[in-house]
Amino acid sequence: MSIVECVPNFSEGRDRSLIDRIAAAIAGVDGVSLLDVDPGAATNRTVITLVGAPEAAVEGAFQGIREAAGLIDMRRHSGAHARMGATDVCPFVPVSGITMDECAELARRLGRRVGDELGIPVYLYEHAASRPERRNLADVRAGEYEGLADKLADPEWAPDFGPARFNARSGATVIGARKFLIAYNVNLNTRSRQLAHDIALDVREAGRLARDAAGKLVRDADGKKQRQPGRLPATKAVGWYIDEYQRAQVSINLVDFDVTPPHQAFDVIAEEAQERGLRVTGSELVGLIPLDAMLQAGRHYLERQGQSAGLPERQIVETAIQSLGLREISEFDPDEKIIEYRLAAEATSLVSRTVSGFADELSSDSPAPGGGSVAALAGALSAALSAMVGNLTHGRKGQEEVWEAMSRLAATAQRHKAWYLAAVDRDTEAFNRVMAAGRGRAKTEDEKAAKTERVRQANRGATAVPLEVLQGCGRLLELAREMAASGNPNSLSDAGVAAWCARTCAEGAWYNVLINLAGLADDRKWATETGEAAAAAIADVRAAADELSADIERRLLAGAGR
Predict the structure, then answer these.
(1) pTM (two decimals)
(2) Which of 4, 106, 271, 291 lies in the 20 to 30 Å Cα band around 218?
């Protein structure tokens, strides 16, 4: 399924009744999930985050823009943030199953509709830009609302859609497609906007105007002012003072967090602040953040502390929250602020249940979840035990030589744990697709052929999931072997249980492959190849598990004096 994120920014952050009406217009669109509504009084701006299928996202964005046009009068607007319209900017961001080019087309479709139906001038930016000089949002928004009338009178700045005349009430809107942007503010222990902005000039990619030793601006041969680049690429930043927080902030847009992640920006700003006699006291996230950015931060600070980075995902996230001071000026709930967690919270899954809840569902008269999900759960438990042994070894006196390896292996085990937990639901979903494919009457020959193909593909899927689970068990056993060989000797039994859980996972997955192959009698070539791959995998797992279990049992018996 294609999922796109859309993040419209509205020029109203103080009147909650107006904000709620805009949010309700968006949320009322079928297929739209409203993930976040983040108003700011000082900036007088609200950032709304919605996700959905492409068509739903476009419709949701349009309804929000239309509602804002009727509620917000830009002639009375003031705030700390740059802006040029009631809906200032509206980017589409690819999340899954959709490309950046496709998001750019969504931006053009929305822009055309806003211009035609609402009479609002629309500029396209970033990946949807109609020309290179319009890619950068700051360039498009230069002059802001107050300079918009003159801009529209300039043929070089004719809008991409809508009338080239000043709409005094709604201003103009900038629509585009971009990578995930993290809006992130770093807090300083000062009220000085000037000091905050001085730091911003030194860290942002655009930097500041270059000056010579005498303090004069440096110009090239054509007289053009030269710039001194800042320390952080893919970063935009300004300094401002926020009255409600009683402090200044370096306000940042991280336009590519793979290039400059939040923790790097935080650390660099802390260095710049210290040079000026200031101190960073925390930070603030505006809108949502990808899980990967939080995990990068958590692992970064764990490694700096000399701690194992092979901890459960939630603990790594909590390390990031505390290290970045994300709760200093407002509450930070990861289930609300991390986009993957928000999406997961809106879906029902087996792995989100309690142990007793899962067991109750398993024991009901429903055929799913069943043995395939239980096999995958055994794999997750194997990986979890290996991660535990690694973490109990890292930092243990006398085993310093394996600390680094144990931390790395524990992190690997955590990734396997997450994969197998996801497979718990994947197995049940695959079974449900088999059941759905067989429903409905097929009367014509074409309908019968289509149904036969649906059933075949569904059965293939139901077989492929346990096959993948089975083929991954060799890696689980290798982790358990590493932990048994080099891990904390007091946890040898845990490594042994990890090995047996891996074998249980493999045997259960093997049985599920076999029973699903029975439904592929008319797909003999694929079934034969799949069966041979599964047979080879289970043979390898059994041999490795026998050898490892025998070794661990021998060592445990020796330790018990038997």
Answers:
(1) 0.71
(2) 271
